Amino acid sequence: WPLQGHINCMLHLTAALLDAGFRVTFLHTEHNLSRLARAALPPGLRLLSVPDGLPDDHPRSVRSLKELTESMFTTGSAAYRALLLSLRSDSDAPPLTCVIADGIMPFAVDIAEELGVPALAFRTASACSYLAYLSVPTLVELGEVPFPADDPVRGVPGMEGFLRRRDLPRGVGRSEDGAFDPMLLAIAEGIAHAGKARALILNTAASMEGPALARIAPHMRDLFAIGPLHAEHDAAASLWSEDDSCMAWLDGHGDRSVVYVSLGSLAVISHEQFTEFLAGLVATGYAFLWVLRPDMVKTTGSVLREAVKEAGSKARVVEWAPQRGVLRHRAVGCFLTHGGWNSTLEAAAEGVPMVCWPFFADQQINSRFVGAVWRTGLDMKDLCNRAIVQGKVREAMESGELRGRAHAMAQQLKLDVAVGGSSSSDLERLVGFIRELRSSIVISSKYASVTSLFLHHH
User: Fold this and answer.
1) Angstrom distances, CA of residue 11 to CA of 17, 200, 276
2) Enzyme catalytic residues
3) Does residue 458 lie within any of the structural domains?
């Protein structure tokens, strides 16, 4: 799926498959492939692309996701079918063993299977959010619509004790009370469709999300929990140019003395919200590194620069940061994040406490798990004023309990991805699963070929 968060996760999977000895083709949209020319991609990875059906000057922003979706499901799917047919008929290339398709694109699974190519689904979000999406028919029946309210939710099995309506996945706009966002309904339908794939792959660990995995498994033909993939199979491909100079800036600060702030690749905030965030961060007294994309705040760049300049030498702003390196840096004491799954996993793997301000989709439920289940951070959803920002950030920077639990989770995840760990064992099982698919196909090539469908954009 053509979004930065999906690109990150999918590239880590390609690195794991390449390490296992497979040949891998990584499928982008043409728009994204042109933006990723500078990426540090794994050696041996073949790149192909299809059009997403939108003009070059289309913003492809969070507020045009409906247009992107409609175009991908029409123009994109037709181009994908044509490409898959040409790959199957290419006698000079190794035969296709399987397709691994982003779990948000059911057409990619269906078309592959129609053409005789086994298809697996890879969902790049958390297991807890996946289970919430699977539960959408029950939520609709119960009238438990995503809404900023504290009413308990009964419609997601296993989460009755802590999930609230404000924690359910949401669209970009606010849902009206009593109405369910059509976009969320479409996503939920597509996610449930993964049950028709040969298997579902999730970038998570049983130690983090065992109960949710157990409830998802009966709906799937097979299930693999192989994360966090970046911890053992790192790869990088950013749609923005990373500002590495912020690493030297971090070097000049003491241990756990800097707040890292990034709301991801899609979130947009108002000028008023920007002002409250900035005032709250300044009031903490801590230095902060803030990722502010050019398209993130609804105001002019000069206004932003002047506002940050007034914050003084403790503020450092970049358009995009090498996030995994930042989170590993000794100077970072907490992470103010949107709670996207990649960011959540990256902070968890480094033992960095989080303050979550989710924007939409799965981020809502991820932040609830951070605050109420794992208790490795604080959930600040639906709140944005300087006093709350100041209080939550200070607590995350100074709480020994939060830091201790975050550190314990990081240690457990290291065990999960190490040889013999649950995620490592499931990855081995996945490799074996793909090799069995290969053995069921008459091939003359020495190597298996895995086509991984990661259709991306920003």
Assistant:
1) 10, 17, 35
2) 6, 102
3) no
